[in-house]
Structure formats: structure tokens, C-alpha cells
Amino acid sequence: MSGDVTVISGPTAVGKGTVVQALRELHPELWVSVSATTRSPRPGEVEGQHYLFVSDEEFDELIASGGLLEWALVHGTDRYGTPAAPVRAAVAAGRRVILEIEVQGARQVKANLPEVRTVFIAPPSWDVLRERLVGRGTETPEQMARRLRTAEDEIAVSREFDHVVVNDDLGTAVGQLVELLGL
Questions:
Q1: Which domains does the chain have, with CATH numbers?
Q2: pTM for the whole structure
Q3: Phi/psi zone of residue 94: left (φ > 0), alpha (ψ -120 to 50 degrees), beta?
Q4: How far is CA 183 from the centre of its chain?
Q5: Phi, psi angles (nearest 5°) of residue 150
Q6: E strand or H helix that includes residue 19
């Protein structure tokens, strides 16, 4: 698989989804992958739009059949992965592809497809990241603590990415992505 594929990653609550959504609104020609996950939907999330919500058994079958481009156990509790067939089809059709995925998955994609562009979305500060996570109101205190531990590890490896974009101001962050992608 070759083509224009960009991986956008970063820690929990950094605003990856918000940044990608704003980028897509500016450039609807972009094809954005929809990840599969074993976690339950959050309020407002729509099946097939935000995620493909699957059972553990369905996820196991995707792994066994080679149906995932990458996958990872995230925060020690839930699995996330990128279905391979839609990505391959989009690349084959000449689409510009965005994969919004976790850091572990980004590493797998980069290992398998060294030509991909990787972008790490970073928070302006640790305190802002913590405030955003708390502000979501979708996790228990235990889940938040686990996510923050994972976020520390992810931020520590941001230098592995081709580019780092700080999500302090949405418009600025999206503008930097537009420039990086040559849109």
C-alpha cells in the first residue's frame, strides 16, 4: 500500500478528534478512517461515524483474519484498531487518507508503511490536558488516572513523530496541519 497517508496521534483528551473534524470541514476531500473499538460508546457518539463499536469476539476475529492495519490495547482496558480494507481501498482510489489513531497504533503503521507522515498532537501543557480530560466528564476517576498515566508515556515519545502540532488554539493547529499536508 502506498499513497498519501497521514497518521494523526496524541494523548487522550488532546483534541485529536476535534482537530481532525475541523480539518475535514475545511477539506472534505480528505478520507478519514473510522477505527474499531471494544469500548462502549460515549454520549453522542454515532456507530460508524465516530467508531465501529465491536465486541471482544468481533475484534478477535478482525485480528485473526488480518482485517486490521494496526491495533492496540489502550489504557489497559479497551482495544482500538484500524480496519485495513477501507484504508487500502481509499489509497487505491487516490484519496488523501487520515488515520486518527493511538500512539501504539501509529508506531505499528509507521513500521509497516515507512512512507507515511506522522503528526503528534500535543497539549499546550499538562494542566490543560488534565482540565480537558476532566471537562469531558465521560470517565470515572480511576479511568482518568489510568488515561493520564498513559498520556505521560505518550507525550514522552512525541519526538518519534515526523511533526508535532500543539493544540493550544484550534484554528492555529488546523492551519499547521493544512500546511504540513500541502492542502
A1: 5-181 (3.40.50.300)
A2: 0.86
A3: left
A4: 20
A5: -65, -40
A6: helix 16-26
Of 111, 124, 114, 107, the C-alpha closest to 159 is 107
Rounded Cα gap, residues 42 and 82, in angstroms: 19
36 and 51 Cβ atoms separated by less than 8 Å: yes
Which of the four pLDDT bands, split at 50, 70 and 90, describes residue 35? very high
Phi/psi of residue 159, each to 5°?
Answer: -70, -10
Cα radius of gyration rounded to whole Å, the chain: 16
Determine the Cα–Cα distance for residues 48 and 24; give it in Å rounded to an integer.
Answer: 16
At how many degrees (to 10) do helices 170-181 and 16-26 cross? 60
Above 50 in pLDDT, residue 2?
Answer: no
Q: Is the dihedral of CA 121, 177, 80, 49 positive or negative?
A: positive
Whether 107 contacts 160, CB under 8 Å: yes
d(CA 178, CA 108): 24
- Report the length, in residues, of the chain: 183
User: What values do phi and psi take at 181, rounded to 5?
Assistant: -85, -5
As a whole-number percent, the residues of the chain with pLDDT over 70 amount to: 98
Taking alpha carbons only, the member of 104, 117, 109 closest to residue 83 is 109
d(CA 106, CA 81): 10
B/e letters for 132-157, b = 16+ CB within 10 Å, e = fewer, are bbeeeeebeeeebebbbebbeebbee
